[in-house]
Amino acid sequence: MKDDKAALVFKKQPSIQEYLLRAWQRNALVHAYLFSGLEGMGADELADWLAQTLFCQTPTEHGACYTCQNCQRILAREFIDVEWIEPDGATLKVEQIRELKDSTHYSSLEHQKKVYILKHVDKMSVSAANSLLKSLEEPQSNVYFLLLTDNKDNVLPTILSRTQLLSLTPLSKEMLNEMVKDKVTLDTLRAILVELSQDVHKIIELGTSETFQHYHQALWQWCELLFAKDIYAFIFVQTKLMEWLSQKEYALYGLDILSIYFRDALMLKEHQEEHVHLKKLMPNYKKIIFDPEKGLEYLLQAKENVNNFVSAQVCFERLCLEIVRG
């Protein structure tokens, strides 16, 4: 391969890449694909690679060369016959799809092909989806639709039924860590976020946020109080954690982070050190004086309550009392 980008796509989604490569080699690509996977798992790179492969001036055995003028222009979003379409505000609007449909009738004389890459098709309005359906039902020759979503369940069934679904494979923890380590430099926080999420963009967003870093530090301080069954943990919720608990997302992340600490403590208690995620914290885990298995049960209940719109402060305080008094 002539470019690291090609290697990265193969590394992220080798099975899907190989499947599409074989279809291209046999001239058997279908007119519409739906790539389903979280941000950062490789959907964007797959769409870029397939578009580049279709227009590449010097294709290789791996498809796109990544170095010819066409490949470079596609990557820079400057190629007239490859269009990226993203939501205008909260949704993909019918006007955007109508413009797309109008442009399908015009391709450059040189290429005689068009590729449309639609991001977040789960956010397509019903009217926009209905407008797109005719193009999917009656595809023109050499017009390809690459639809991307991170929430397949919200894609309208009529769209799903007219595309070939390609579900992206979850990335390994090792690969996720490698992808974000240059930006998320705090080792423990990075290990936690990689454990909690497959969304590369979200990991980087949280891992580089000073607000979230401070929240993580406060959570660990609170966890140490819980490990010791210190009643001050109850006051700590009110005095140190409240600034973050007003956001449901942060409250749920907090409970998820605690679950990693508690699960690690349980693995250590059961002499399964190989399953401890945060081995640097093992000396701290050994100080725990409550049953981490019971703690995980309390955490699950707290998370269910937060999801059911019970006050996060109430949930955290109740969790604290259950552990301290248990």
Task: Describe this structure as you would to a colleague.
This protein is α/β, with parallel strands linked by helices and 326 residues long. The chain has two domains: 4-167, 3-Layer(aba) Sandwich (Rossmann fold), CATH 3.40.50.300; 209-325. The protein is built from 16 helices and five strands. The chain has helices at 4-12, 14-25, 43-55, 69-75, 94-103, 126-137, 157-160, 173-180, 187-196, 200-207, 210-227, 232-245, 248-269, 282-285, 292-307, 312-325; strands at residues 32-36, 82-85, 114-118, 143-149, 164-167. It has a five-stranded parallel β-sheet, covered by helices on one side. Helix 8 (173-180) packs across helix 9, helix 12 (232-245) runs antiparallel to helix 16 and helix 13 runs antiparallel to helix 15. The model has no long low-confidence stretch (mean pLDDT 91).
